[in-house]
Amino acid sequence: MKQQKYIRYILLPTTLLCLIASLFCGCSANSGKISKTGFYFDTMITVTALSAIMILLRIILCFSLARFWKKVNDYDAFIEGAKEGFTTAVKIIPYLVAFLVGIGVFRASGAMNMVIQGISWSVEQCGLNADSVGALHTAIMKPLSGSGARGMMLEAMKNYGPDSFVGRLSCIFQGSTDTTFYILAVYFGSISIRNTRHAVACGLLADLAGVIAAIAIAYLFFG
Q: In this predicted model, what pLDDT tens digit does every residue of 155-175 receive, in sequence order?
């Protein structure tokens, strides 16, 4: 009950206040600068930066207040967590090695390129804009590996340019999806859970929603 009140009356209002304040500051600083599509790109950048900073500071402040409220010793809690983290890291090594080998085989076999070519052909046959296909390497790799997706993102920016549509869409893919299979392999493996039930389906569905939203936002702002 106390945690629910804490979230309802402290975390949510302060988050909303941070967003409103950053939006007000961004609009005030960039009023009148409208792009050809009618959106405030400078305002968007300012709002994003201010929101990230203010939300991060709010999280740190809330944790500090919660520590005093719960009367928790910082150092003891850190040492205990470090001990548990080391034990967990040792347990997940076999699962992590197997998963990384699978990723290497997937990339080296050319299966990813075949998937991308199939998607590109399908999009072109439907008469749709295929500009987003060049960034799908990042979207496909992200559920498997965060570092691999980052490599794909950097490669897209190198080939197409960081300010190109593909480069920007790759960056959006990098932030809108998560490393679903990596999380399942590491965290379920660390506690010896083999039956993940609906975790894979739910995770991939969330990734699909993130990919669709990323494409829509990219075309909306940068298309």
A: 888 888 888 888 899 999 988
* Lookup: tokens for 106: 């997937």
Of 155, 126, 156, 128, the residue nearest 223 (C-alpha):
128
pLDDT of residue 11: 55
Q: How far apart are CA 11 and CA 122, in angstroms?
A: 45
**pLDDT value of residue 205:** 92
Q: Which two tokens stand for residue 49?
A: 């930066």
At 22 the pLDDT is 52
Residue 155 and residue 217: Cα distance in Å, rounded? Answer: 21
Q: What Cα–Cα distance (Å) separates residue 135 from each residue in 132, 153, 212?
A: 6, 8, 13
Amino acid at 113: N
**Residue linked to tokens 């910082």:** 74
To the nearest 10 degrees (0 to 180), the angle between helices 165-176 and 146-160 is 170
Cα–Cα dist 186/184, whole Å: 6
Structure token digits, residue 153:
């993102």
d(CA 32, CA 41): 11
